[in-house]
Amino acid sequence: GENVEQHPSTLSVQEGDSAVIKCTYSDSASNYFPWYKQELGKRPQLIIDIRSNVGEKKDQRIAVTLNKTAKHFSLHITETQPEDSAVYFCAAARGNKLVFGAGTILRVKS
Amino acid sequence: DAGVIQSPRHEVTEMGQEVTLRCKPISGHDYLFWYRQTMMRGLELLIYFNNNVPIDDSGMPEDRFSAKMPNASFSTLKIQPSEPRDSAVYFCASSARGILAGGLQETQYFGPGTRLLVL
């Protein structure tokens, strides 16, 4: 089955700096890659997603890139703000089953 | 739109007791997913339904776990008997449309979760 690895497990950045989180997946048939943000005690919420027919997608300060050949995708957050502090999960899906990475704890220091 | 609704939000029970978690998906969504989140294992898919029919229950940990979806607006996840290692946050999620062959995935919207503690 699908296996998703996520790095780093924790990331600390200064406010205003960029943050990059990377994920790799194992199933070349996976075709949907969402990113979720989870604040402490809250539900995971979708922040951006990308499908396998697209290489890059951007939404304001957030962007995601996908390299199908290498089977990896990345989340980029620019101009980080304290409210970006949370746990971020990547996921890969083939069919309807999402397989999640282990998560990255992002801390934005002001 | 009220979003995905789960109840109870918190549940504390003793080992051996039966636990029933409830979920109401977003109206019009025809896929429903049950996840479990723990520090050790992260977010795991337990089972999902399409049009009230269980499609994949390969993530259900053992026979003590069962899930039903009697209609389009209600699903339950039952643990009987419960054990301390079942302590976790259980999320329900729904989506409007799943992947057709070669088609597009739709966003899964998560409910607030049920925090279960088995003593």
Can you give a write-up of this model?
- Helices cover 0% and strands 59% of the residues of chain A.
- Chain A has no helices and 11 strands.
- Chain A has strands at 4-7, 10-14, 19-25, 32-38, 45-51, 56-59, 62-67, 72-77, 86-94, 97-100, 104-109.
- In chain A, the strands form 2 sheets. In chain A, strands 2, 4, 5, 9, 10 and 11 form a 6-stranded mixed beta sheet that branches. In chain A, strands 1-3-8-7-6 form a 5-stranded antiparallel beta sheet, with no helix packed on it.
- The radius of gyration of chain A is 13 Å and the shape is globular.
- By secondary structure, chain B is mainly β.
- Chain B is built from no helices and 11 strands.
- In chain B, strands 2, 4, 5, 6, 9, 10 and 11 form a 7-stranded mixed beta sheet that branches.
- In chain B, strand 4 (31-38) and strand 5 (42-50) form a beta hairpin.
- Chain B starts with a strand and ends with a strand.
- The A-B interface holds A 31-32, 34, 36, 42-46, 49, 51, 89, 93, 95-103 and B 31, 33, 42-45, 48, 50, 55-56, 91, 95, 98-99, 104-105, 107-113.
Give the SSE layout:
The complex is a heterodimer of chains A (110) and B (119).
Chain A: E1 4-7, E2 10-14, E3 19-25, E4 32-38, E5 45-51, E6 56-59, E7 62-67, E8 72-77, E9 86-94, E10 97-100, E11 104-109
Parallel strand pairs in A: 2-11
Antiparallel strand pairs in A: 1-3, 3-8, 4-5, 4-9, 6-7, 7-8, 9-10, 9-11
Chain B: E1 5-7, E2 10-13, E3 19-24, E4 31-38, E5 42-50, E6 53-56, E7 65-71, E8 74-79, E9 88-95, E10 109-110, E11 114-118
Parallel strand pairs in B: 2-11
Antiparallel strand pairs in B: 1-3, 3-8, 4-5, 4-9, 5-6, 7-8, 9-10, 9-11
